[in-house]
Batch of 4 targets.
Target 1
Amino acid sequence: MAYGLGTVLTAVTLGWPGINRSVGVAAASLAITLLLTWAELAVSVRRLHDLGKTGWLLLLCIVPIAGLIILIWLFGRRGDPGDNRFGSARQAARRRGNM
């Protein structure tokens, strides 16, 4: 979602009539898009780890429709109730502020 928002903001900024399409605007748009992409990837990998899955499953985005459907299904599932190979449930709860 953050990547989509960054892309829309970049498109609006660069395509807005009357805006000077200078190198500075392009660089700022690129920086915002990269920052939002990095944040989205980090959150997505953490969510997959909460499910006990590897972050490499994000590569399913390459598969046009089926990959997106699978990822939406995975992100909607409940996380592992106990410990998994990526950490303990206690650490995850502490990160979320539940403990």
Note: The helical segments are 2-15, 23-50, 66-76, 89-96.
Target 2
Amino acid sequence: MIYYEMQGAFHNHELGIVKEIYEEHKGNAMDYERMKQNLSDAGCGDAEIKEILDLSEKGLITEALQKMKKGRCRLMEELHESGRKVDLLDFLIRQTEKEMQATN
């Protein structure tokens, strides 16, 4: 996650748009539930979801956005780690297949 923070993943150029959307849907229970479900589907834990929603309800959109971006960075780290594991398994599969062909 630190890598992404250092790479500037937390720019707030989209903050104006997020604030506009928030103001349009402020207090709408349907949007609250939809956001809660979307955060859950995105892999956020209960505490993280509560924190983001509480910040949003208080109008602290910048802070809520930052929490979501940190969650995104965490997911990207997990994605890259999974990719490294797949690459390793691919290498082991190729090596094993080569050894099998050499013995036949």
Note: The chain has one domain: 2-103.
Target 3
Amino acid sequence: MLTEHPTFTEILSLWKGPTGLAADMGLPPHLRNRVDQWRRRNFVHPKYWPRLIDAARKVHGIELTPEQLMAAAAGEEKASRGRQRASEAA
């Protein structure tokens, strides 16, 4: 089960691994390495959100909304800016 405002890491952890998620999203084999990138970056590009929403519903019975994904993206952007400022100050 997800929190009310899940991060991309929480969402992606619903799947055991990137291969299963990529397959459930219907990604062709040459794009499956992107799922690993999403996990590392804690971010999924908005063009993949409809597929992610659909896969979460079909596979896990979880109703993700675009608003939840926008909040996750905004949270990661804010965290990224904080990390950048910290590295600049060091």
Note: The chain has one domain: 8-89.
Target 4
Amino acid sequence: MNEILKTKKTRSLLKESIEYFGKEKQILKTIEELSELIRALSRYLVEDYEVLLDYEQTINNRDEEMADCYIMLEQLEMIFQNKTSIKNHIQEKLELLEYKINQ
């Protein structure tokens, strides 16, 4: 899915966004989007789907907020230029996860 975020066109757009809005604003926007995802996930977990009239809207909101976060996290990687570090941390986290599952 985030292969869309790796295209040349998208990378260029994200770079333009950082230049247009500024690094600090994009960092703050990331915080905002992450908090919106937290709210969407909380709503998803606590809603009583038997009485929920807007189930599709809840699901759509969850997915939309996830998409926003993917975009903003990609911009953070561009701002901090820490792709290698992130890759290393992901590998470590995946190894730890595998260890926990296989224990």
Note: The radius of gyration is 17 Å.
